[in-house]
Automatic annotation (TrEMBL):
Lineage, highest ranks first: Bacteria, Bacillati, Chloroflexota, Tepidiformia, Tepidiformales
Binding site for substrate: 54, 78-82, 136, 201-202
E.C. designation(s): 1.3.-.-
Organism: Tepidiforma thermophila (strain KCTC 52669 / CGMCC 1.13589 / G233)
Keywords on record: Cytoplasm, Flavoprotein, FMN, Oxidoreductase, Pyrimidine biosynthesis
Pfam families: DHO_dh
Molecular functions (GO terms): dihydroorotate dehydrogenase activity
UniProt GO cellular component terms: cytoplasm
Protein name as annotated: Dihydroorotate dehydrogenase
Pathway of action: Pyrimidine metabolism; UMP biosynthesis via de novo pathway
Protein biosynthesis listed as a keyword: no
Length: 316
């Protein structure tokens, strides 16, 4: 049986963002994609729906002091602090290599200010090898920008507007779960022209080293990811997908094809997989295989047909 796993993450947008399947890595857990290519070859990269880069900032960053990660039951805390090569190196050195792949690459950008989001979007516009932009208005591990912007409906809207105005590339806005009402944020970003919403970034958390009597992470707080946050992410996707008309990308704790199916049934059009790949580098490929096998076993010829099927209006 021929199964159609494809999804357009920017329907109606002038460029569109057509993926062969809805599975992609979560920003920051896949570096720039080259290690994955080394292990699984170009064929491996070209089985993915898309590649999402780690967060890029205007200037290169060294990131936070070590330790930057701490294990927790069913998840991990991280405080990387956006270590990266900066946007110029991204454009000049990384994009030409991405252009080799027949897989769309989405660049995750993190501005210090609303205007910087606009400036970086302008710089990425028209660069061969780049198919979309994801706005990281939700990083919990930096002093400026990041979650500060993503926790304000007004600032999130302004960051979206600044980026959308400056590029023909589809703009995905990535929400923080660390707010009372993510739906208001999503609606504001949609109104400003976001092509899609990604939900969610990490949940704020912390751990304490009782021997040192100090927080484990140098900035005390970190971002919790992995299976521990899956129910939170799923609830936010369910709520956001019920409110916006643009596609929603589910992210948070997805480890298996069954998890991915839960997000799709909640209303996500696609999924991102992060922490799971640290324990299983094949996780993305296993999830794609698992989705295909599930469709075959359940007589589903078009995966898109199950998107949102668990939502009230369609529950029998
Ligand atoms: C080590 C690490 C680095 C991350 N870096 C970024 C980043 O640069 N930009 C971003 O938007 N999200 C970043 N995230 C958040 C992930 O993209 C994802 O939203 C989050 O981890 C939840 O998904 P997961 O439970 O599948 O990991 C990072 C997460 C981890 C664990």
């Amino acid at each position: 049986m021929e199964i159609d796993l494809s999804v357009d993450l920017a329907p109606g947008h002038k460029r569109g963002l057509l993926l062969r399947n809805p599975v992609m890595p979560a920003s920051g857990t896949f570096s720039w994609g080259f290690e994955f290519e080394q292990h699984f070859g170009r064929e491996g990269i070209e089985r993915l729906g898309a590649v999402v880069s780690k967060g890029v900032t205007m200037e290169p960053r060294a990131g936070n002091r070590q330790p930057r990660v701490a294990e927790t039951p069913a998840g991990m805390l991280n405080s990387i602090g956006l270590q990266n090569v900066g946007i110029r190196a991204c454009i000049e050195e990384l994009a030409p290599q991405w252009a080799r792949w027949d897989t769309p690459v989405i660049v995750n950008i993190a501005g210090d200010t609303v205007d910087e989001f606009g400036e970086m979007a302008r710089m990425l516009d028209g660069v061969p090898g780049i198919a979309g932009i994801e706005l990281n208005i939700s990083c919990p591990n930096v002093d400026t920008g990041g979650m500060e912007i993503g926790q304000s409906v007004e600032a999130s809207a302004r960051a979206t507007r600044a980026a959308v105005r400056n590029t023909d590339l589809p703009v995905i806005v990535k929400l923080t779960p660390n707010v009372t009402d993510p739906v208001q944020l999503a609606l504001a970003c949609e109104a400003e022209g976001a092509a899609a919403i990604c939900a969610v970034n990490t949940v704020l958390g912390m751990a304490i080293d009782i021997e040192r009597r100090r927080p484990v992470l140098p900035r005390a707080r970190g971002g919790l990811s992995g299976p521990a946050i899956k129910p939170i992410a799923l609830r936010i996707v369910y709520d956001v997908a019920g409110a916006v008309r643009i596609p929603v990308i589910g992210c948070g704790g997805i480890t298996t094809a069954r998890d991915a199916l839960e997000f799709l049934m909640a209303g996500a059009s696609a999924v991102q997989v992060g922490t799971a790949t640290f324990a299983n580098p094949r996780a993305l490929l296993d999830i794609i295989d698992g989705l295909e096998a599930w469709c075959a076993a359940n007589g589903v010829t078009r995966l898109g047909d199950i998107v949102g099927c668990a939502r009230p209006a369609t529950v029998a």
